[in-house]
Design brief:
single chain; 255 residues; alpha+beta; OB fold (Dihydrolipoamide Acetyltransferase, E2P); five-stranded mixed β-barrel; three-stranded antiparallel sheet; binds zinc ion
Length: 255
């Protein structure tokens, strides 16, 4: 069976002399792994469309185990993401999280749109913001939306001071001792997180929260995602090492 779909290349690995195994996240079929035969030969027409982070249109043959890529056409290559180490690390983190959370199949057009939007924002040097939107909305789309309004301990409307636990969301001062991993969260950050989750994606994409808000969301969501995965992320370690090595005042983009 042949099928056509839009997709994003999440990762690739070489196989044999000239082939590649390509993992896509597709709009209509969810996560798909396919072999691209002969693609590493010079001037192969599928070489461009199978570069990691590429957004394209693909024609595939359904196989018993792996599908086979037959044709590909680039919609947006996201070339800039492969040229800058910081952007590459950020995009790798994004694709690794997608790959770890998703099984083969399971189409989710909203998630596909989220991935496209975040990679597009990344090519505009906005990964520091876009990854936070991605983390929150991905969790929601997978059914792990953090609770931000009522305390996860007692269920009452949250006051101040407030805390956030990776175990599910916000925690009130009274319940704090029951959640040893809870850390404080400011009211402003909590409101930004609610906007990231509730507003239309096009409206969210034009927001510009402050650096301190983004840093706070990053810390909170890294713990939240690690709790759900129950293992550390390879690319997150790499991202953090880049971050430690660079001086934030030198104007370099941070992730
Ligand atoms: Zn409580």
């Amino acid at each position: 069976m042949v099928y056509n779909t839009e997709g994003i290349v999440l990762r690739t690995r070489n196989m044999g002399e000239a082939d590649k195994v390509v993992t896509f996240y597709t709009k209509d079929h969810g996560k798909v792994t396919a072999t691209a035969r002969g693609v590493r030969r010079p001037r192969n027409r599928l070489l461009g469309p199978t570069q990691v982070f590429t957004h394209g249109r693909y024609m595939l043959f359904k196989g018993r185990q792996l599908d086979t890529l037959s044709q590909g056409e680039i919609i947006y290559s996201h070339q800039k993401l492969r040229e800058d180490l910081d952007d590459m690390a950020a995009a790798m983190y994004l694709t690794e999280v997608m790959d770890l959370f998703l099984e083969e199949g399971e189409p989710n057009p909203d998630l596909f749109q989220l991935l496209v939007t975040v990679l597009d924002l990344g090519t505009d040097k906005r990964f520091d913001f876009a990854l936070r939107v991605f983390e929150l909305r991905l969790m929601a789309l997978l059914g792990y939306e953090p609770q931000l309004q009522e305390c996860i301990g007692c269920g009452l409307e949250l006051g101040e001071p407030a805390f956030f636990s990776p175990e599910g969301g916000v925690v009130c001062n009274g319940c704090r001792t029951q959640f040893t991993k809870a850390r404080s969260i400011t009211k402003g950050t909590r409101e930004w997180m609610q906007r990231f989750l509730q507003w239309d994606l096009e409206r969210v994409a034009i927001l510009h929260p402050s650096r301190s808000v983004l840093d706070e969301i990053q810390t909170i969501m890294a713990a939240y995602i690690a709790f759900r995965l129950d293992r550390p992320l390879k690319s997150l370690g790499f991202l953090q090492s880049l971050r430690t090595d660079s001086d934030p005042s030198d104007g370099q983009p941070r992730i």
